[in-house]
Write a structure and sequence with these properties.
Elements (H helix, E strand, L loop, with lengths): L5 E7 L6 H10 L12 E10 L7 E10 L7 H7 L8 E7 L3 H5 L1 H8 L28 E6 L6 H10 L2 H5 L3 E4 L13 H19 E2 L2 E2 L16 E4 L1
Parallel strand pairs: 1-3, 1-4, 4-5, 5-6
Antiparallel strand pairs: 2-3, 2-9, 7-8
């Protein structure tokens, strides 16, 4: 089996928002039939073609670290969870579109992941008012994903999507809203698939090609590895 370069992407969000289902969909391209609570951390691997279709195309492993637990809580829980936050190259923030609290908690998750104990101002304010300066120096690429889109009635979708639109702006990130039980939301060529690919490309560029704002020299070509998932790793 080829040895490919890899990047580490955290998948963070409140319990029950659908992180495990999302990771399974991203890595297996299949719906997770019976999702269970994640204890500790579960790691799955996706194969990604960086700059697909261009002369610079290279294949990488994307390690998706699905971190369980609830934001905040006891310091001992945070300390244990912090082990998973080392050497992070990207973060996917996941919230439940039907649960406003899970959207607000993304600020706390992101601050915890970048090892900052600041309490974000405005987290509990529903109009999205918070201090953007707390994230001004963050260099880790972020992607915001809203789940359970199917559970929002068509007549109310615009209202909900308008309410959470500020999230992407606050985190300087793109956003994807989907239903993890329907693979078509990430179908090849769709706008969501393009956003996802663009995010992974950015994570890879930050890790391997850009340092302190400067382009880094390329690295030797690796033998390509075709399709699918490498393996699943589970940490309890």
């Amino acid at each position: 089996m080829a040895s490919l370069d890899r990047v580490k992407v955290l998948v963070l969000g409140d319990s029950g928002v659908g992180k495990s289902s999302l990771v399974h969909l991203l890595c297996q391209n299949q719906v997770l039939g019976n999702p269970s609570w994640t204890v500790g951390c579960s790691v799955d691997v996706r194969v990604h073609d960086y700059k697909e279709g261009t002369p610079e195309e290279k294949t990488f492993y994307i390690e998706l670290w699905d971190v369980g637990g609830s934001v905040g809580g006891a310091s001992s829980v945070k300390s244990t969870r912090a082990v998973f936050f080392n050497s992070v190259n990207g973060i996917i923030l996941v919230h439940d579109l039907t649960n406003k609290k899970s959207s607000q908690n993304l600020y706390r998750w992101s601050l915890e992941a970048v090892n900052r104990d600041l309490v974000p101002s405005g987290v509990l304010v529903t109009n999205g008012d918070y201090d953007r300066e707390q994230f001004a120096d963050n260099q880790i690429p972020l992607l915001v994903i809203g789940t359970k889109l199917d559970q929002i009635h068509e007549a109310k979708r615009n209202e909900v999507l308008t309410r959470i639109a500020f999230l992407a702006e606050d985190f300087n990130a793109e956003e994807i809203n989907l239903d993890c039980t329907n693979p078509r939301y990430l179908a090849a060529g769709s706008s969501n698939a393009v956003k996802l690919s663009r995010f992974f490309d950015k994570v890879i560029e930050k890790r391997y090609f850009i340092r302190d704002g400067n382009q880094m020299p390329g690295f030797p070509d690796r033998k390509r590895f075709g399709g699918g998932v490498l393996k699943n790793l589970h940490y309890d």
